[in-house]
Amino acid sequence: VTNTPNCGECHDCLRGRGDICQMNPSAGEPLVPVGELADGTPVHQHNNTGGFAELMITYDWYCVPALTKASGPELAMLGCVGATGLGAVTTFVPVDFGSNVAVLGAGPVGLSAIQGARIQGAARIIAIEPIRARRELALRLGATVALDPNVEGNGLVAKVRELCQDAGVRKLLGGRDRTAGSDSGGADFVIATVGADFAMPKVEHGPDPSALLPSRQAWEMTRAGGHLVTLGLPRGEISLPAGSWSNRGRIHHAGQYGGVNAKSDVPRFVQLIDLGKFDSKALVSATYPLDQTKEAFQAVADRTVVGAVVVFR
To answer: Do 82 and 284 meet the contact criterion of CB atoms below 8 Å apart?
Structure first.
């Protein structure tokens, strides 16, 4: 540990992209197992820091002081999913006041992005999610509209563009009407959090388990010149029209952990929890003891919970 360079010294950190830091241990040499189970299965540490263990020795840059009365499970949601969605729209690509925002996926990342858009003062926040319970939660946390992609079908993009139309009639304001179907219409900011299914959900599921369809739709529902932030992990490849990509493109932002710099951003996110502006507790559907870690993973894969936290008792 003492011979490892400190975070903040590499090319990426010095240019404000700590989320893709070259010093991240996971980006170096292949991980060496630290042990094995009784059946011979190798045991690896996550990012060389350990995980799902009662004792972990971590690097100093992974440690962020949190002076707060918030519970452990609430803070745990900032470890990845909560901070990813919140940071994406408040620090990485800050949502403009009064803008239109569409969020694809209302899991913990998407719900955090919805809350961040609300904090930023977005005018419309459109949640797109197949699971009814998550749509209802999205509305409670700040979404102004919640759409079911299975119900909207091929009309989803058109629906989002319709919802994002200007409030005034342009020709009555001295302008002209927008061309029907033009990509000048659409959301100012689109946050795509849908990832590929690696297990069949036990509840409602989206129209494409590879997440390629919502990835393409995310591009299409972003207005020309708007901002597209991709946080999900689809499986496969998508194609885009070359003409609109080059002349009427969107500003695409990609960054793991929502572009968050933990040292500077997480303390502010903790403050948002303390002030009641960010409801981290709503993202925690269930907690599990350490010996039920496998059950926690299964519940998340089944989509029967929003977020699951393993606690030490």
So the answer is: no
